[in-house]
């Protein structure tokens, strides 16, 4: 979902510098504390493990740009933890999830991280690419706590502790444009529009569209926006005037709905494809609903919540039983996948009797073919690469569970296979 809001590079750098100073002070105070210790059965433990409990952190957005998806991510993770504990927990420990809502505010995100970091083993959730980037230096330099973010910026690659699950936004966008070329008639010489958020999310996605455009002989017409820009009339007008044949949108659900709705109302009949965080099924009940079902597509790092797999069907049944009044969306898949991956790392770490931060991170690095049942195999062994290069192409459809149907199964385009993020 990410999942990003506007944070300038300078602001992110300033936040990181302030946090690094605060972190050094905190660590200095903690020096001489417990450190690693032996738990039951000779299992080594450290931060985030106390008594009979392993505590994981979740920095989410329940009141900001991605409030709907943030709620789904968090509830899915709470459901996973409940089921894990019912099955006996990990190494004799119960797992707890400590949640903070940052409302997609950079100051709240950083302060939430500062508060939780000393108390948790790691983070099963951290929504917002720029917020994760703002604390990356501290995570890599001193905290060394595993973070599985709901963020897919390529800027997060390379860290041994921040592990992107699924294809990064640039690779996802390459796969999205590949779909436009193969399925929607975009060909050499055409112009495509790209509407994108300022910051890590949008810039990562733009790198992908520019890369495949150069290879395919296309021209990218850019429209940079902020998360506070909710009316896409000006962007549609500019792209229509430029004669683009398709549009990529790397923004939030609200911006995607506005873009597609305004385009339909003005007779601008072109396909629009968004990154995985640019849709929520609640949009289908708005005035933009009919246009979304006709001309909108979404590139996703996995099959949707309504997928026809045993694992998806079980998750739907369990989630409905736990939260009968809430909407099903792909935030559930993202949250469940991250929590399950963290859980798998905990189990591997338990087998080696090392539930310290270092032990859990090392355990995740050993997982090379993790299959949670949503169409994509995850390989966590290389911190410099995303865990997958595949994307599933979805289309809004209010008649199916979760409001999204599959129009192209998980696939990595040839351009995505050959692409190196950041090169």
UniProtKB/TrEMBL annotation:
Residues 1-28 form the signal peptide. Pfam families: Peripla_BP_6. This is ABC transporter. It comes from the Bacteria. CDD domains: PBP1_ABC_ligand_binding-like. Belongs to the leucine-binding protein family. The lineage of its organism: Bacteria, Bacillati, Actinomycetota, Actinomycetes, Kitasatosporales. Transmembrane segments: none annotated. Residues 53-380 form the Leucine-binding protein domain. Keywords: Signal.
């Amino acid at each position: 979902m990410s999942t990003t809001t506007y944070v300038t590079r300078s602001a992110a750098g300033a936040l990181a510098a302030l946090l690094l100073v605060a972190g050094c002070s905190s660590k200095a105070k903690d020096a001489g504390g417990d450190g690693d210790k032996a738990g039951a059965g000779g299992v080594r433990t450290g931060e985030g493990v106390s008594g009979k409990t392993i505590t994981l952190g979740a920095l989410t957005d329940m009141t900001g740009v991605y409030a709907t998806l943030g709620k789904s991510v968090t509830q899915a993770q709470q459901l996973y933890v409940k089921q894990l504990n019912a099955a006996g927990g990990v190494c004799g420990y119960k797992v707890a999830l400590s949640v903070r809502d940052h409302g997609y505010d950079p100051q709240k995100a950083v302060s939430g991280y500062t508060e939780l970091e000393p108390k948790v083993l790691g983070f099963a959730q951290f929504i917002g690419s720029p917020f994760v980037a703002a604390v990356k230096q501290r995570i890599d330099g001193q905290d060394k706590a595993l973070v599985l973010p709901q963020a897919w910026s390529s800027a997060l690659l390379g860290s041994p502790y921040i592990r992107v699950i699924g294809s990064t936004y640039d690779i996802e966008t390459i796969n999205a444009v590949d779909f436009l070329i193969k399925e929607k008639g975009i060909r050499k010489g055409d112009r495509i529009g790209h509407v994108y958020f300022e910051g890590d999310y949008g810039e990562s996605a733009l790198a992908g569209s520019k890369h495949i455009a150069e290879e395919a002989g296309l021209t990218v017409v850019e429209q940079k926006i902020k998360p506070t820009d909710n009316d896409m009339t000006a962007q549609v007008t500019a792209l229509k005037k430029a004669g683009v044949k398709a549009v990529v949108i790397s923004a939030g659900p609200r911006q995607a709905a506005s873009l597609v709705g305004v385009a339909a109302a003005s007779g601008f009949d072109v396909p629009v494809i968004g990154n995985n965080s640019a849709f929520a099924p609640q949009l289908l009940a708005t005035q933009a609903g009919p246009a979304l079902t006709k001309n909108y597509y979404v590139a996703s790092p996995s099959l949707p919540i309504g997928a026809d797999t045993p694992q998806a069907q079980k998750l739907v049944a369990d989630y409905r039983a736990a939260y009968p009044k809430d909407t099903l969306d792909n935030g559930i898949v993202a949250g469940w996948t991250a929590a399950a991956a963290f859980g798998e790392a905990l189990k591997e770490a338990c087998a080696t009797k090392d539930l310290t931060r270092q032990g859990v991170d090392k355990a995740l690095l050993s997982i090379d073919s993790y299959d949670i049942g949503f169409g994509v195999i995850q390989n966590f062994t290389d911190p410099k690469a995303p865990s997958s290069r595949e994307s599933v192409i979805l289309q809004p459809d209010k008649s199916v569970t979760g409001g999204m149907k599959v129009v192209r199964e998980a696939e990595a385009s040839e351009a995505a296979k050959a692409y190196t993020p950041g090169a």
